[in-house]
């Protein structure tokens, strides 16, 4: 996995969007996001066939822009669609199941501290997501924000391991997050709620 993939990592589900989610994704891809995570969960999330169809539509769009398509949490769907990878919480089973059945795919794991990070690496993660850095309105059960201090501490101990930061990241603070050691920024609302996705992503790119 190339760490550049993490630079502008867009995470989205239909319930994060205020307009057609496929239009949001298309605009984000057009503007230059470097990775996409399909995260269809929470209140109002699609289920069943509509869920799979939406995932497949997102995958096709990503393929057209040659942007990696990662699925949040759902190993079965990731295998069924032959996604580029999966992103999971700290759940060894999901990592080992996916690794066994999908050689060469990307595995991302959410971590919150040095201890989690050691475990994720031992379990075979290709990259980690660290968060929440700032307060987020998007994930209701998010842990308390850590600010960039935790990120700096983790980066010091893991010099080269691919890290993407998440939680409350915007055009205004992305630079600070990168300076603290993140290879990239993962964002939901900063892109989903932007009225000028092109400009938002351009501004984020400027901080790379
Ligand atoms: N995971 P926004 S925070 C999906 O801390 C997610 O692991 C987090 O949304 C974590 O960019 C978060 O709108 C929500 O703040 C990110």
Distance between the termini: 18 Å
Uncertain regions: pLDDT < 50 for 5+ in a row? none
CATH class: Alpha Beta
Helix-residue proportion = 40-55%
Q: Tell me the major beta sheet.
A: 8 strands, parallel, barrel
State the assembly state of the protein chains: single chain
Q: How many independent structural domains?
A: 1
Q: Could you give the order of strands across the largest sheet?
A: 1-2-3-4-5-6-7-8
Which key phrases capture this entry?
208 residues, alpha/beta, TIM Barrel, 8 strands, 17% strand, thiamine biosynthesis
Please give a structural write-up.
By secondary structure, this protein is of the alpha/beta class. The protein has one domain (3-205): Aldolase class I (TIM Barrel, Alpha-Beta Barrel), CATH 3.20.20.70. It is 41% helix and 17% strand. Strands 1-2-3-4-5-6-7-8 form an eight-stranded parallel barrel, surrounded by six helices. The protein is globular. The chain starts with 7 loop residues before the first strand and ends with a helix. The mean pLDDT is 95. It binds ligand 3NM. The site of ligand 3NM has 17 residues, from helix 8.
């Amino acid at each position: 996995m190339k760490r550049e993939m993490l630079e502008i990592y867009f995470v989205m589900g239909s319930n994060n969007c205020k307009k057609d989610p496929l239009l949001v994704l298309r605009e984000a891809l057009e503007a230059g996001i470097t990775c996409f995570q399909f995260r269809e969960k929470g209140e109002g999330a699609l289920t069943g066939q509509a869920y799979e169809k939406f995932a497949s539509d997102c995958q096709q769009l990503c393929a057209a822009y040659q942007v990696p398509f990662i699925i949040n949490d759902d190993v079965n769907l990731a295998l069924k669609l032959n996604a580029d990878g999966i992103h999971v919480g700290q759940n060894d089973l999901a990592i080992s199941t996916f690794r066994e059945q999908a050689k060469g795919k990307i595995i991302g794991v959410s971590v919150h501290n040095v201890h989690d990070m050691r475990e994720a690496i031992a379990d075979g993660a290709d990259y980690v997501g660290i968060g929440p850095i700032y307060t987020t309105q998007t994930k209701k059960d998010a842990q308390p924000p850590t600010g960039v201090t935790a990120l700096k501490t983790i980066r010091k101990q893991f010099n080269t391991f691919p890290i993407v930061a998440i939680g409350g990241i915007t055009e205004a603070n992305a630079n600070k997050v990168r300076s603290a050691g993140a290879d990239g920024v993962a964002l939901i609302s900063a892109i989903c709620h932007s009225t000028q996705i092109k400009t938002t992503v351009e501004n984020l790119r400027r901080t790379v």
